[in-house]
Write a structure and sequence with these properties.
2 copies of one chain form a homodimer.
Chain A (H helix, E strand, L loop, with lengths): L4 H5 L2 H13 L17 H12 L11 E5 L14 E4 L1 H10 L1 H25 L1 H12 L3 H8 L1 H18 L5 E8 L2 E14 L2 E5 L5 H14 L4 E4 L6 H16 L7 E3 L8 H6 L4 E7 L2 H10 L4 E5 L5 E4 L5 H13 L11 E5 L12 H15 L3 H8 L5 H9 L5 E4 L3 E2 L9 E2 L2 E6 L3 H7 L7 E7 L2 H15 L4 E4 L3 H14 L3 E3 L32 H5 L2 E9 L1
Parallel strand pairs in A: 5-6, 5-8, 6-7, 8-9, 10-11, 10-17, 11-16, 15-16, 17-18
Antiparallel strand pairs in A: 1-2, 3-4, 4-19, 12-15, 13-14
Helix pairs in contact in A: 2-8, 3-6, 5-8, 5-10, 6-7, 7-8, 8-9, 13-14, 18-19
Chain lengths: 557, 557
Amino acid sequence: MTLTDTRLTGHRATLDQALEAIRTRAYWSPHPEHPKAYGESAPAEGLAAFEALKGTRFDLDQPGTDGWAGAEISPYGPELGIEYPHIDPDVLLPAMRRAVPAWREAGPERRALVCLEILARISARTHEFAHAVMHTSGQAFMMAFQAGGPHAQDRGLEAVTYAYLEQTRTPETADWSKPQGKRDPLKLHKSFTTAGRGIALVIGCNTFPTWNGYPGLFASLATGNPVLVKPHPRAVLPLALTVRTAREVLAESGFDPNLVALAAEHPGEGIAKTLALRPEIKIIDYTGSSSFGDWLETHARQAQVYTEKAGVNTVLVDSTDDYRGMLSNLAFSLSLYSGQMCTTPQNLLIPRDGIPTDAGHKSYDEVVNDLAASVGGLLGDDARANALLGALVNPDVKARLDGAAELGEVALPSRRISNPDFPDAVVRTPVIVKVDAAVPESESAFLTECFGPVSFAVAVDSTDAAVELLRRTIRDRGAMTVGAYTVSEKTERAVEEVCLEESAQLSLNLTGGVYVNQTAAFSDLHGSGGNPAANAALCDGAFVANRFRVVEVRRQA
Amino acid sequence: MTLTDTRLTGHRATLDQALEAIRTRAYWSPHPEHPKAYGESAPAEGLAAFEALKGTRFDLDQPGTDGWAGAEISPYGPELGIEYPHIDPDVLLPAMRRAVPAWREAGPERRALVCLEILARISARTHEFAHAVMHTSGQAFMMAFQAGGPHAQDRGLEAVTYAYLEQTRTPETADWSKPQGKRDPLKLHKSFTTAGRGIALVIGCNTFPTWNGYPGLFASLATGNPVLVKPHPRAVLPLALTVRTAREVLAESGFDPNLVALAAEHPGEGIAKTLALRPEIKIIDYTGSSSFGDWLETHARQAQVYTEKAGVNTVLVDSTDDYRGMLSNLAFSLSLYSGQMCTTPQNLLIPRDGIPTDAGHKSYDEVVNDLAASVGGLLGDDARANALLGALVNPDVKARLDGAAELGEVALPSRRISNPDFPDAVVRTPVIVKVDAAVPESESAFLTECFGPVSFAVAVDSTDAAVELLRRTIRDRGAMTVGAYTVSEKTERAVEEVCLEESAQLSLNLTGGVYVNQTAAFSDLHGSGGNPAANAALCDGAFVANRFRVVEVRRQA
């Protein structure tokens, strides 16, 4: 099959809408969130497609395949039993490099349109991807569908859009004529070509394989770089499906499919470290632990390294004119995907003397107990709890949850939930632990990222003390998100100042259906790139501008 | 004196023209190149102003001034005898940080307009700056005037323009409304603020203090960062004048003058190393040796580091249809400022069997001898030679020139020129040394940067061998410029491919009044940022995009 030009150029309108969206930052998405939007047969077909993959060898017809690897076990229980290509980089990387010249010559617009076709094909298979994401990340189905499907596709498209915009600010050609008084002007004909830097490596994560993988993957591909995808060993399938789709579209559009390839690994092999130091690798995108992110930044000096690492997210609670709204909003934020989001609040800073609210003054204990009750109410029904919490993604998260009780006084204990469809799934409600900022031993606990369904109700001396603790937390530990509840203009301004100075994204007084841990592509920035939690933001000009270089050729006219 | 809003907003038209220029890359500059354009009294006033500075203490009224430093001696002979503030960073850096909030709140447009006013004031004093540049860099007056004046101001304005553009792609505010079917839409009000990263450090160079200093200085300032300027100890005055002008304009526009400050140093003190590792320093711009550039990239991990380092520039000579034009163009490129430009060609790759030209076949020896004669003719008249060559900037350059004869067979010996105005100036014509690429011992000589008036006529087996040597040179040694002369489409294509793959800026068949070592702001890129000679290009989006972060605050609407 060959892709028609009409099919590709048909995506130009979407690209134009995306360009407009990142300019206005108004709401926009071409990818529907509702499962029903994908057609009546889509749910059954998606499930069947996913089931058919189980126990198979996922061949991608890649050069340099020297074996097969894969041992994914769903956090919901079932083994996937899928084998993926293991690579010999000495064969695959040169093959990927050979694919570059034609991709470079295609230019920014054609590259963008091919990327949009890849995303369109992924979008059409969103139900299949949803099951793949669910059974690797442990997300509940609806979240896997939305965050792993349309939201991830949005972030991919956003990256393509920024890449296109940044590459096209310099014209392809220019005629330059410099006046010389009475003499003839000096004249030059100039051409400007965007050229990728080399092979890009995407190192995927366990919890959001597509959402965190797509921005780097599409930013690098759209800027002319081949992309090697090294998925997390527990979350290979969503990215393997992505790679297969990309290779199909590339081949059908007349490009070398080796522009996108997969590198699976044997248990404990740690190929990310080896690949990251290869001289051919010029760009690395990574989501995961701070220790490996810092290692990459320090050692992979031949590459541009974009990292999203650990952070400690804070919500400062000063006052509110919607106490119930605040509690229910926070309860949802703490519960969603069992707190296994890099954006989930960890520390709730509450003045020990309590806070003024529309429901009267509330003491520290009242706020904590009311929040605990709110979480309890939200997750009281097991079906609803399962739909919100999903499953714990791995034993490390469970171990942290189990250890949380020792870190302070438990205000809300974690509860075990049964999942009738998947009896082996480890489903737990979040724990809330009371700690006191004035107790030095507590600090090491609440100022360390405790990834998973653990949050700390931190008693602070005052709102001023909370603002200073917030500043220190962002500066020293990093933060993907900051939230604050206050009716005081002065406090609002102080929190804003801290976020401006320490570079963190702030959500103020969320009491409705938007949550601090959710961001919308084309409008919200994910991370700031200016604090220790991440060295890049999704998505801005800086995320794409250094993935390519502009090469000028000038000739006398 | 207070700057009126009218004066500042008057620069908006210039900013708009600059925005248009970087979009079209057609010729444009608001800064006249001809000394006469600055008014009849400007030359005398400029000279007088420069002379009046000699032997004085250059006070900038900076906090944390703990002493005075300065020992500049003009490459033309005279001691400048000027003392500049030596800083206590523990006092100055906190003062600079305190200046940030108001500068951030001013927003991208006002920051740009203030930067344009600084540039306009510098422009008005171009004659004074020309003498300052001449007597620190050793450039001849006309070059010091043009490269140190309008061309440097152009590069500064270009950086401001990119900074403005990059900061304004995200709107200041956005209203976001997400449909929820039959329910009310989710609504948020969002604000987006560009915030600098912290204090920027500019480490100046000896040869082009303003031209190489302005891009980083203005890019950082325009993106909201205070800028600490650490000039080269031999070239303090041009940047001290710049800092004084900036501080005046900042104060008059109601900002803290400590947004721009100077750090002079005692001989051998090496304060760049200390300053570069201060936690307050978040951005570093550096032009100079590869060893210190690499050190900065490796050790100043808390900062974004932009470096321009050493490289080996190549001109590939394959064939020409304008032999005389080629020779005279190359002769000028080798002679200008005694080859002391980072863009001067070093290696001329010439097939050992000679080349076809419009004047018949020319053997390797004929090409070399004709080029030598062309340089000799160009510099035959001492007055013209002085005007083109300037003076050797420091004893290291002279030592390299003196040692060049040992590196191969001298095709054109260097000649000593007397400067009647400055008898102590060290003025030398360039040397051309014949080497053979097939002789392994030669390689270490011609593949090492030999900064100064030394070039190598490298005999190569064939044009194909030259193309491969060019590739290896760029990849391993870096290159700020590449030139080629060829009438063959195949060779042209091959050289272009190498430049695209190895990321180097190429000039083809220059035979007239444009030279491979000159680039024009708003149109030509200086360096590519994609090979070892520099990790950034002047100027593109990547040069500015990571100097600031965008902080979002979202509120329920």
